[in-house]
Amino acid sequence: MKKRVLQGMRPTGRLHLGNYLGTAKGMVALQEDPEYETFYMVADLHGMTTPFDPKKIGIEAREVIIDYLSVGLDPEKSALFLQSDLADLHVQLAYYFSTVVTIARMQHLPTFKEKVKQHPENVTMALLNYPILMASDILIYKASVVPVGIDQEPHMEVTREIAKKMNSLYDLDFPEPKSLDTKGRYIPSLTGEGKMSKSVQGSFINLTDDSETIKERLSKVPTDSGKGEKIPEEGGVFSLLTLVELFQGPEKRKEYENGYQGTGIRYQELKNELAETIFKELEPIQKKRLELEKDKSYIEKVLKEGAEKARAVAAATVAEVREKMGLLQKEKI
Ligand code: TRP
Fold first, then answer.
1. What pLDDT, on the 0 to 100 scale, is given for residue 23?
2. d(CA 22, CA 78)
3. Which one of 104, 237, 286, 296 counts the least CB within 10 Å of its CB?
4. Cα(49)–Cα(47) distance, rounded to whole angstroms?
5. What is the pLDDT of residues 268-310, one digit of tens each?
6. What CA–CA distance (Å, rounded) separates 40 from 51?
């Protein structure tokens, strides 16, 4: 039996290089691995737990799909769908789950507390229910594998607790899903501090950047004299060497490191060459994206087929839970 994977992506704007190397490539690898069956969902309902623009949220959800299609997700191999297209099932199951979760448990989650700090004016029931809806997203497909970062671990724990409680109270067979480290690489920021992040200006390269823009961004990475006994393990030079390794290979990095400890590195040349190599990898993704942007009806078709695939599984789970919880099955009313 294939292991089922469910991953949810919040619609938080376009992908940058860090997301691409850290997340998207891992998702494509899972899709290609015959051991797994992949369900990839845009968590647009979760996008409503913090302030959002009703004029944009629908478009942004589709942007996520376009981004992931352009980096290689294949609707023939993965179910790609919007959470809101299955709101009737996901929200319904979340409600059943909410009968076994206490308010105190939700209020004490570090993820909840952090959001309360960020948006003190927006401490809503949707926010409190966030982890329960996420548990529903996962368990509705009886997924056993969830590729998420460490920041989502509190939600994964809640998910396992809910699975255990539902199983023991109602004789169900939910798996206790595990998070999976997709071997996504840590991509350091171009500022030399922390990781590449959309919320830090000057830290990232966009997947849509042309070679001039990439050159400009790299030109701002702080460097040093280019020489020294010890290869830097942090800061701008470390970021550059990491990117060299990722895009030009470990040997190239070694060459530069030898240079650093020898005659010195000329950063201008390193940066220009690196920018060219990064652009070469991004160019086909950008071409694919342009094609996809032109064909709105294709995107809608992908979403419709993805939702149908997902619905077949999700509807069966909800029917099973309703029956086990004592809501007698009857003809459609
Ligand atoms: N909470 C996740 C995040 O912010 C997004 C998400 C929603 C999710 N539902 C999910 C992730 C289900 C994995 C599985 O990243």
1. 87
2. 19
3. 104
4. 6
5. 999 999 999 999 999 999 999 999 999 999 999 999 999 999 9
6. 24
| Residues recorded for the chain | 333
Q: Tell me if 127 CB under 6 Å of ligand 1.
A: no
- Ligand 1 atom closest to the Cα of residue 143 is 14
Atom 11 in ligand 1: residue holding the nearest Cα: 8
Q: Which residue has the tokens 């171009």?
A: 190
**Beta carbon of 43 within 6 Å of any ligand 1 atom:** yes
The closest of 273, 253, 269 to 261, measured between CA atoms, is 253
Pocket of ligand 1 contains residue 179 by CB under 6 Å: no
φ, ψ (nearest 5 deg) of residue 74: -125, 120
Element (H, E) at 178: strand 178-179
Distance 209 CA to ligand 1 centre (A): 27
Cα 92 from Cα 143, distance rounded (Å): 18
Say how far apart CA 135 and CA 288 lie, in whole Å. 33
Q: CA 219 to CA 276: how far, in whole Å? A: 13
pLDDT averaged over every residue in the chain: 95
Q: Is the CB of 146 under 6 A from ligand 1?
A: yes
Domain architecture of the chain: domains with CATH: 3-185+296-324 (3.40.50.620), 211-291 (no CATH)
**Residue 292, C-beta contacts closer than 8 angstroms, at least 6 positions apart:** 66, 69, 70, 298, 299
Which positions of the chain have pLDDT values less than 70?
182-184, 330-333
d(CA 52, CA 43): 13
**Contact yes or no for 22/205 (Cβ under 8 A):** no
The one-letter amino acid code at 3 reads K
